[in-house]
Write a structure and sequence with these properties.
With 630 residues, the protein is an alpha+beta fold. It has 15 helices and 27 strands. The chain folds into four domains: 308 residues, ATPase, nucleotide binding domain (Nucleotidyltransferase, domain 5, 2-Layer Sandwich), CATH 3.30.420.40; 69 residues, Actin, Chain A, domain 4 (Alpha-Beta Complex); 122 residues, Substrate Binding Domain Of DNAk, Chain A, domain 1, CATH 2.60.34.10; 89 residues, Substrate Binding Domain Of Dnak, Chain:A, Domain 2 (Up-down Bundle). Strands 1, 2, 3, 4, 10 and 11 form a six-stranded mixed β-sheet that branches. The structure holds adenosine-5'-diphosphate (ADP) and magnesium ion (MG).
Amino acid sequence: MALLQISEPGQATAPHQHRLAAGIDLGTTNSLVATVRSSLPTVLADKNGEVILPSVVRYDENGVSSVGREARELAASDPFNTISSVKRLIGLSAEDIAASASGMMFRFEQTDSSVPRLLTSAGAKTAIEVSAEILKELNHRAQQSLGGELTGVVITVPAYFDDTQRQATKDAAQLAGLNVFRLVNEPTAAAIAYGLDQQEQDTTIAVYDLGGGTFDISILRLERGVFEVLSTAGDTALGGDDMDQAIVDWMLESSNLSVDQDAGLQRYLLDNARQAKHVLSDAPVAEISLSRGDFDWSGSLSKETFENLLEPIIAKTLASCRRALRDAKLDKKSIENVVMVGGSTRIPIVRRKISEFFAREVLTDIDPDQVVAIGAAVQADILAGNKPDSDMLLLDVVPLSLGIETMGGLTEHIIPRNTTIPVARAQEFTTYKDGQSAMALHVVQGERDLVQDCRSLGRFELRGIPPMVAGQARIVVTFQVDADGLLTVSATEQTSGVAAEVHIKPSYGLSDNEIEKMIVDSMENAETDVRTRMLQEQRVEADRTIVALDAAMQRDADEFLNNEEKDTILKARANVLSTRESDDSEAIKQSLHALEAVSEIYVSRRMNASVGATMRGKKLSNYDKQDTAS
Ligand code: ADP
Ligand code: MG
């Protein structure tokens, strides 16, 4: 019953052969590395005893000059050579970035290249390269404290990361010289850190992760030791950064000063805002004193004022919580454990509001900054083969439905949204025309019925289909999403075995907001979609009928029909063609019925002539197919 075993075959080793492995939380704001030592998971510190590595990389003319805290501290003085929050860019195209507000924090090279590059004095850098620097630093730290090379690592990613973002994260790891056992969703790692997988009873868990740059809510179900992600929701542009910005806005309003275009000053204010925010997690008031150039101001921020600033941010997270519950078809009451993850869940009002929302105590015992890295370390330890008996299972979900374009520009969903991965689903398709030797397959992602409203993931062709009549070829299209969330689509013609395959690496990724928008759109447009789908289906049906009728008539109309009968059929045929151009699916349907009615005599005569055909249903196309086959 185990769907997916984490221990890789052949990797189990005797207990004394401990292999070095680590879990990495590659965060937007902060990153950490952890490992399991003498059965205890622990985060690894640098030589100064710091466990948190700010995800900030600073460049100078010679290349990377610093990574982490030092880089972050210098950010204000040299904003464009100091890259932070790069996770917001990973796997995104220039278009994606242009469409999102976070792109404004960065300075990009102006080229036509599809992969956006950040301008630094060390040259133009992709988000993958910048992320690789953070991973290198963590790898270095792990090797220093463990005294050897790592066999492999588990890297966590937000549950919402799509194919491209996951692939880009893997690419960054490769660039950093790391062997990735597996990418794992952050919430799943957090639940494992709490050992929720070790408990006897089945349980439903909500993981609330409010970090610096992203918010994720995931509903997990643990049944007989098997984890399943029931649903996820969130926002890639919501977190502590927004709180810092809210405080800066408050500072500007209170001081009557402005930052103009001064990026350095902006960073300085954000740094001070963050410090004040941290103070307010433990104290009722934060004293702020600012002095930089002309900007001279001091004031105090009360917890109450701060909590008012937080209100809209918390409200947004609760809206996502409701959506995740709705997707999982669950009631708040069915959630038995609520795990708090991310530095921003240290804020008392956040804990309070979430606890109120779910009407239960929230889990905060494990440091919310470290919990994801710890869970990743536990899994890395198992994957390295250090725990051969472990049968821990991990299941995650597909965030948006995956499907294929069919005749008439319609989407045929093959893997519905929120299906657990890894998953493989197959569906059979057939040819549309007699003798059709190739088939174009268009893979799409999204909830809408029409292809034009979904996102195109890729196209490929199946060639060399042996000549057959329309509808006779059996083409099995298989969609496979692996444990890392990467999609492979293959198509095989069953009678000949001709096959084609494509690994889907879309040219750019989707942000949470876009995913959310596509889902909302599909709900809002459900009615129009149904109508359009019906219309398109009728049109396809009309085309199919006409193609089949024409083929038959060309062959033997003179043999079976007199002129009058022929005319009647041709008139009905013309009527189908004209209604086909209308937007009225009912009219098309009626005209098709009429055509079928007047063709009945023709069909039965052909049949009586015992050409070995059996008429199935009323479809002329079927008749035609049987005819030729005999
Ligand atoms: P990410 O997962 O995005 O990398 P983290 O989980 O490390 O982020 O959370 C970082 C965020 O947590 C930052 O915005 C930071 O300011 C905030 N944070 C950390 N400690 C505290 C605290 N004591 N009070 C309030 N916010 C905090
Ligand atoms: Mg995080």
